[in-house]
Amino acid sequence: MAKDGNKIPDLSVERVREQLADERDPKVIKRLTAARGYLAGLSPDGIGEKYGWPRQTVYNWLDRFEERDFEDALYDDEWSGRPPELSDEQFHQFAETLNQSPEEAGYDVAAWSSILAQQHLISECDVAHSRRHVQRLMKEAEVSWKKPRPEPASADEEDLERDDDELKKKVGRQDEDRLVVTIDQFRKSIGADLRYAWFPIDERPTVNVSASRDGINFLGGLTEDSEILFLECAGSFIKETTVRFLQSLQARFGEKLLVVLDKGFYFTAKKVKEFAEKPNPELLYLPTGMAKLNPTEECWRQLRSALGNQYFGEIDELRSEIRSAMTEINPPGLYQYLCR
């Protein structure tokens, strides 16, 4: 078993991150988390120490990614017998459906996931397959796992490339006295956010929702050292809130900051830019249409996942649960987003 060097050179952080966003199996989540930590630069021993997992178990998980296809590394064989097969006609219809938009099949989503494909097989073919087997069928149907490239309708390709190069140049500049911080906003309303989860096939689960617009707004910051700072906003996001958050970041981490942020109006306001003319902090805006490069988005994804399918009827109840869930966030690697 090789224990030095990159054990999983063909696996990308983005592939792991997107699978995590779509995964519900606790064992698979652990394997993906170990792979993400390894790709972020942690040693197997460091991963085990961080999460309290046995050292040998982490090595075994990483060996799976080294020795097997991605899906085979994730899932264990769930039964010794062969799963029931679709008929040729059923598979042909399944393949045709997958090669169309889910909206054409009557689903209110923009793209197929293995969860949706699994549920489609159950509802249309009365055949229940494991996620691993469904993913194999999807490959046989000649669809592949990929991420669309962002292409803002009003953006020029040369401008996007120039902005992207400038972003990498500034973020990657070596400066021991400077700290890189990404910031972004988050809002959670009372009620419940409905998310995919595992439920009995013959039951239709329900979760209370609310028509109220009451909720909580936060600004969040993620440093290159994976430290997180959150500020609750009393009301809507406005320029004064941004300035107060920048002041909080400087009080916590020092004045010399490179702050990476999107072009929301509360970030680009004149008062915000005037504050940054001191000359610190330095503000670096993400290219138009590239807000998903912000690694703070991954923190929000984990937070939404933790709060999903839970009903919150009061602001105080929601606030308490948010603060609790924040302590469980596993911060992503900042440079893997910005200097990909």
From TrEMBL:
Residue ranges with Acidic residues bias: 154-164
Bias-annotated ranges (Basic and acidic residues): 141-150
Entry-linked Gene3D superfamilies: Ribonuclease H-like superfamily/Ribonuclease H (3.30.420.10)
Record region (Disordered): 141-168
InterPro entries in the record: Homeodomain-like_sf, RNaseH_sf, Tc1-like_DDE_dom, Transpos_IS630-like
Tc1-like transposase DDE domain sequence ranges: 180-319
Molecular-function annotations in GO: nucleic acid binding
Name by which UniProt lists this protein: ISHwa16-type transposase ISHwa16
